[in-house]
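sorry for the late reply, my laptop died twice this morning and i had to redo everyting from scratch. anyway the thing you sent over, i finally got around to it. pasting the sequence first so we're on the same page, its 143 residues, then the predicted structure underneath. double check i copied it right bc i was rushing
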Amino acid sequence: MTDEDLLNSTQTAEVLGIGRTYVYELVRRGDLTPKRTHPNRFTREDVELLGDGWRRKRGPTHGLASTYRGYGCRCDECTRANTERTRLERADRFSRQPPKGSHGKATTYSNWGCRCGRCRKANTAYNAPYARAYQTRQKAMMS
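ok and here's the structure:
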C-alpha cells in the first residue's frame, strides 16, 4: 500500500461529505480506524465501505439537554437533563450582574433576578393586565 492509497482527514471528510472534525468523532466511536503505520490516514477502501453507514448509526443520545433542545425528545432522561441545565444556567445568570442598559425592564427582573426599584416597577407594569384579568375571573367565580 502506497501513501497515495491513503486519505488524510480532510480528504476523508470530502469523500463522506462531512466536516473534518466529525471524522475524528467517527474514529472515537470506532466506525473508522486509521492505519497503524500512518496515524490520521485512512484507506480509500475503508472510507468508501463506510459510505453512508455512519449516518444510520447517528441519532439522539438520550439523557442530554442538547437532545431535549435539538431533537425535541421529551423522555424522562432528556427532560431531567434539560431541567438541570436550565437550573444551572439560571443560577449562573443570577450570580452575575445584568448587562449595562438593561435595568428598568421586566425581563431583567425575571431573567436576571434584579430587584432594583426600576426593574420591580417595570415587572409590576408588565404583569398588571394579567393581574387585573385574574382578579376579574376570581370575582366572576365568586358571584
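The domain at 3-57 is CATH 1.10.1660 (Multidrug-efflux Transporter Regulator; Chain: A; Domain 2).
thats about all i looked at so far, will dig more tmrw
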